[in-house]
Amino acid sequence: MQLHISPSLRHVTVFPSKGFKEFIKVKVASKRVSYRMLFYSLLVFTFLLRFVFVLTAVDGIDGENKCTTIGCLGKKLGPRILGRRPESSVPEVIYQTLDENLGKNELQGRSDIPQTLEEFMTDMKKGGYDAKTFAVKLREMVTLMEQRTRMAKIQEYLYRHVASSSIPKQLHCLSLSLANEHTNNAAARLQLPSAELVPALVDNSYFHFVLASDNVLAASVVATSLVHNFLRPQKVVLHIITDRKTYYPMQAWFSLHSLSPAIIEVKALHHFDWFTKGKVPVLEAMEKDQKVRSQFRGGSSAIVANTTEKPKVIAAKLQALSPKYNSVMNHIRIHLPELFPSLNKLVFLDDDIVVQTDLSPLWDIEMNGKVNGAVETCSGEDRFVMSKRLKSYLNFSHPLISENFHPNECAWAYGMNIFDLEAWRKTNISNVYHYWVEQNIKSDLSLWQLGTLPPGLIAFHGHVHVIDPFWHMLGLGYQENTSFGDAESAGVVHFNGRAKPWLEIAFPQLRKLWTKYVDFSDKFIKSCHIRAS
């Protein structure tokens, strides 16, 4: 066959290949169609036709599908043209078998279930099973693997719970050694701060920081990293609040490890006049909360024994049993205006943070009448950490929550917060906090399960000023997706989560940010066998 196109592109003539005189002549209207467009369309059509035939020929090449090229093309395009989906090549019996539920104890004691994919393939090749038997074996193997994976995940959460809730013997040793030093060494019983520096404790021209902790080693890292990175350490006042049992070890440590010219105050809760007068709402709430938890949760054994709940739900319930969530050190921040009546502004630090930059610019942030300067946790590059909204902490299936708050409202973080105490004293934030804690106890902990952040989110609702995420990087204690480089470039890093940097379950690559502020040559550190790794 020959194709002849006239020079003017007005005639297209097709000659038969055997010299037959007949020909087909197509005359194209000059005014309606672009001749060049027709020419190029023919070329493109010829190319596409060959391309489609090559693709559809693949089915003909396959030994299992014996069909002509045109037949295969029809099978592929026919259902789509008619608006139908092509028929599946998977036998319906496989879908039906896989969709059937297995009994709870149906797989117990079975030794004929393949343990690996390799064993499964070997059985299939040897047995020559039909489609239904194939599906049954596959369902049993996958179900068994799911059960074992679930159990392994729950055991991991349980071990992490035990490790994070216990006091490592090294830290216990450190407290005992320092308490002994406090008894025997007058230099470990210094007044902190010295008498001439006491006026600075209420002087608002200084940069005031508050740290509440019963962990001496953790407090030392926060204090050391804060002072070493501050451009004007002589203007730093760090108020350390601790409990009665930790007061002597804490005083001994900071008496023997001076951070001069910074001013360090160590004070136990029972030293505050406000705390010893009358009833303290937070202590009453803690006592009730502890009773409810012991009755409602049933302990870690009962939680782990649950076979219906997802591992993440079990992990959350285990975390709720952690002693730190019922610690007065966690709740005390809601009483900062009463504890420091002379101060106008301060920065509150958790004991699982590390300061990596000068924090004096925090005092230049205009709060616009807000009380709490905090980093929001609902947006950022790290979606795993920065994806927290109110629905992440509060139970919106409860009418008390759903009627008062919006589930998608952005949450914020404790750990490094700027508090404008002057603005705080003009609000009823503390009373709102205690009201909601009481409501949660009355509802058997059905408003939220753990921690001081949920009631804090409620109490400070409408009183939060959002600050730059640079000042507070979160999540270093429950995930290791954050790179060392990104963490190192943050102003403050927070090891919130179970994997605290002083525990053996800490993430090694991130723990280095914390250990750089520990002097492992110190005699107390060495004698208690506290090591970098």
From TrEMBL:
<dbReference type="GO" id="GO:0071555">
    <property type="term" value="P:cell wall organization"/>
</dbReference>
<comment type="similarity">
    <text>Belongs to the glycosyltransferase 8 family.</text>
</comment>
<protein>
    <recommendedName>
        <fullName>Hexosyltransferase</fullName>
        <ecNumber>2.4.1.-</ecNumber>
    </recommendedName>
</protein>
<dbReference type="InterPro" id="IPR029044">
    <property type="entry name" value="Nucleotide-diphossugar_trans"/>
</dbReference>
<dbReference type="Pfam" id="PF01501">
    <property type="entry name" value="Glyco_transf_8"/>
</dbReference>
<feature type="transmembrane region" description="Helical">
    <location>
        <begin position="37"/>
        <end position="58"/>
    </location>
</feature>
<comment type="pathway">
    <text>Glycan metabolism; pectin biosynthesis.</text>
</comment>
<keyword id="KW-0812">Transmembrane</keyword>
<dbReference type="GO" id="GO:0045489">
    <property type="term" value="P:pectin biosynthetic process"/>
</dbReference>
<dbReference type="InterPro" id="IPR029993">
    <property type="entry name" value="GAUT"/>
</dbReference>
<keyword id="KW-0328">Glycosyltransferase</keyword>
<dbReference type="GO" id="GO:0047262">
    <property type="term" value="F:polygalacturonate 4-alpha-galacturonosyltransferase activity"/>
</dbReference>
<keyword id="KW-0472">Membrane</keyword>
<dbReference type="InterPro" id="IPR002495">
    <property type="entry name" value="Glyco_trans_8"/>
</dbReference>
<keyword id="KW-0333">Golgi apparatus</keyword>
<keyword id="KW-1133">Transmembrane helix</keyword>
<keyword id="KW-0961">Cell wall biogenesis/degradation</keyword>
<keyword id="KW-0808">Transferase</keyword>
<dbReference type="GO" id="GO:0000139">
    <property type="term" value="C:Golgi membrane"/>
</dbReference>
